[in-house]
From TrEMBL:
This is Ectoine/hydroxyectoine ABC transporter substrate-binding protein EhuB. Keywords: Signal. The keyword Signal applies. InterPro entries: Ectoine_EhuB (IPR014337), Solute-binding_3/MltF_N (IPR001638), TAT_signal (IPR006311). The gene is ehuB. Residues 61-291 form the Solute-binding protein family 3/N-terminal domain. Gene3D superfamilies: Periplasmic binding protein-like II. The lineage of its organism: Bacteria, Bacillati, Actinomycetota, Actinomycetes, Kitasatosporales.
Length: 305
């Protein structure tokens, strides 16, 4: 792959232990940058698939919408942008002739509105491809697929391995704002009003460690990364949730404005090259991803589900 270029080239260093303070400190370190990112980016005409790629090449920087989620896209303790999606963006946009990536932190629920309001150029947050989202943005093909897992107290005293287990044991379940695990829990029989919705995975871990909930539901990679090093909690083995009675394979991808098909297609072409060479997995592996979570799913497939 082309090595990262520009001022933000650095060695991938995923954090080993994350706290709310470290995440917030990182966001504060780029506060001025984030504020600058709220300025609208130059819009493309949308004619013939848009001209944003040419604009990005000319200005030498692409603005990435991130949600401060480990391990998908976040600011580390040194104030540097990292995570599975930003590191992959560095590699792909470098190949496309765009030298630098710049973070625009926002809340997860604001990523699609912010993208379509031209506050940044692309969503780089490991966002799941869903039919509802496909009506608002266009996606590259997924760069990973992901089962669910739980964060539970050490030893998993209630034996919680699936949503059916949790329902049967009347477990108190928490998950994150906007997480797909909300739907997964509801499909299993939970009432949405009974779920404890927390702002992020750090709050979810804290809720389990303090005994306020019996489990925190998240993606398998999030559960592994966040629970690692905890003296009071652990992650369960990954499992595939059932939706409409069928196993549901979720895939995460980069999102683009609907007018920017040329940029999306060029991005996709480089993504597929990285996948074929094995470089994609080498990029995301430091963030806790396994070979089993690599995928050949397409955005077209997931948009139809």
């Amino acid at each position: 792959m082309a090595a990262p270029r520009g001022n933000d080239a650095h060695t991938i260093r995923p954090e080993r232990r994350h706290t709310r303070r470290s995440v917030l400190a990182g966001l504060a370190a780029v506060g001025a940058l984030g504020a600058a990112g709220c300025t609208r980016v130059a819009s493309a005409s949308g004619k013939d698939g848009g001209d944003l790629l040419e604009r990005l090449r000319a200005q030498g920087v692409v603005r990435l919408g991130i949600a401060g989620e480990v391990p998908f896209g976040y600011i580390d303790r040194d104030g540097r942008l990292t995570g599975e999606a930003p590191e992959l963006a560095r590699a792909i946009f470098g190949r496309l002739g765009v030298e630098r990536v710049q973070p625009v932190p926002t809340e997860f629920g604001s990523l699609i509105p912010g993208l379509n309001a031209q506050q940044f150029d692309v969503v780089a947050a490991g966002m799941y491809v869903t039919p509802d989202r496909c009506e608002q943005v266009i996606f590259a093909d997924p760069d990973y697929q992901m089962p669910d897992a739980f964060i539970v107290p050490k030893g998993n005293p209630l034996g919680l391995r699936t949503y059916a287990d949790a329902l049967r044991r009347h477990a108190k379940i928490a998950t994150g704002t906007g997480y797909a695990q909300i739907q997964h829990a509801v499909e299993a029989g939970f009432k949405e009003n009974d779920l404890v919705i927390v702002p992020d995975q750090v709050a979810g871990l804290n809720a389990v460690e303090s005994g306020r909930v019996d489990l925190f539901a998240a993606t398998a990679v999030t559960a592994r990364m966040v629970a690692r090093g905890s003296a009071k909690a652990e992650s369960t083995k990954p499992f595939v949730a059932l939706v409409d009675g069928k196993p549901k394979a979720d895939g995460g991808a980069f999102a683009f404005r609907p007018t920017e098909t040329r940029l999306r297609d060029a991005f996709n072409a480089e993504l597929h090259r990285l996948r074929r060479s094995g470089e994609l997995y080498r990029i995301v592996r430091p963030f806790g991803f396994t070979e089993a979570e690599m995928t050949t799913l397409t955005a077209k497939e997931l948009c139809r589900r």
